[in-house]
Amino acid sequence: MTETRKLTQTPEWKALTEHHGKIHDTHLRTLFADDPERGKQFALEALGLYFDYSKHRITGETMQLLVKLAEGCDLRGRIDAMFGGEKINLTENRAVLHVALRAPIDKQIMVDGVNVVPEVHKVLDKMAAFSERVRSGEWKGHTGKRIRNVINIGIGGSDLGPVMAYEALRHYSQRDMTFRFVSNVDGTDFAEATHDLDAEETLFIIASKTFTTLETMTNGRTARAWALETLGDEAAVAKHFVALSTNAAEVSKFGIDTANMFEFWDWVGGRYSMVSAIGLSTMIAVGADNFRRMLAGFHEMDEHFRTAPFEQNLPVLMGLLTVWYADFFNAQTVAVLPYDQYLKRFPAYLQQLTMESNGKQVTTSGERVDYETGPVFWGEPGTNGQHSFYQLIHQGTKLIPCDFIGFTRSLNPHGAHHDILMANLFAQSEALAFGKTEEEVRAEGTQDWLVPHRVFNGNRPSTTILAESLTPEMLGKLIALYEHSVFTQGIIWGIDSFDQWGVELGKVLAQRIMPELDGHANSELKHDSSTNTLIRRYREQKGNG
Ligand code: F6P
Which of 56, 83, 345, 497 has an alpha carbon within 20 to 30 A of 201's alpha carbon? Predict the structure, then answer.
């Protein structure tokens, strides 16, 4: 058996620990004062993205040491392994090839000796043809009415990407159609999504990689009953239901003709699936051309990640900075703060991408890590967050690295709105970095007792990502940036970023509890005393007791 490499014992990690000891107190004020060019020095321009990482607690040496860490972890080799179709999702013995979903037709990406790119394009073409028929009104409902409403039913990766992309690209969407997304098994989600819709004009997209997910199957069955209540005839299902899945057998069992199924493959992870068939709702909303523009943006970032030297590689730098704060500053979270209303669901989308991927405590060889792995990702669009949680980021006791995302041009220019919005973005990162000293507060004539309350320590790190405007291409680039940053982190931490065993236990226990909720109040429960009492109380209140 080969001896496994212990990350914290590597010379690269030790060098970073020592370096952190030397610079962790250095203030960003000092770093900027010492180097008048720092704002440009630690900024990178690539693929139309301006990535300013100068307001981080780093020096040139930090970045060199972080890059060495990446090299020591064979990041280059692992990138090649992913793009080469190797089964890098070890615990599920699967290739990880979301990059193939956005590869141009002339690329070759092999899985088990087969080039998967032609298959990807075949499905994209089928999606495009279907989307066009729905958008143009050619695809009619069972009673001959045109489809005006599209409801995507899915959860996790089969929901978060589609919702986020629909919101992000709403500017490009077909405005005479309604798009809704049902994910929660809470019946309220379905009820509110459908209460004002006409079943004759509604298309349901049942999106599930496995087609066995309890929430989605429950919502799917409810949708069928709801539609048939109006449409009356089983034959209507063919006109009002399509499926997105890897599992044709389950799709058939559910009652959807596999001719109305758009397939994808087991080498597409759920949280990486929004540009597979799972993107059908996005494509219907924005049209195939815009969808392909988004794919082109993804692909550009994929190629940048695959080929750019680490020092100039956006996802690598972003991933390394995440590791730097999580492991050396013990930062527990990262705030993602898009200054664009269209990106309002971007932080929620990133939560699954980052935390389902890197919320792991053992390495790929099964050993417990002795360092921190994936931080909590969270956020809200600016400026709303400023009037909510920014207080804690500015003056709280926690260090929260922030990603500010903004665009030079608004898609909805209205008077001074955009300048006001962007002035706030720039002001926030400046305030976080430089703060306001006691002397400055006193110089303003502040009363003594108020001084400590009005001091901003600063030295709070942030990245600013600036692009020209939120185009479909740019959305693709931004998402791929985070995807590959997550990959970079996972490789450094030596974990499997592509499995999600942590979601299983709760699912199994829920299956066990479900029949118990229907049972007689006195029937025997074999849980702990807390769970037993909660179940009994629930039964009693609902009237089973
Ligand atoms: O429970 C987690 C999960 O497996 C996610 O990884 C996935 O995106 C989601 O459930 C939905 O799965 P499916 O697409 O198979 O319904």
Answer: 345
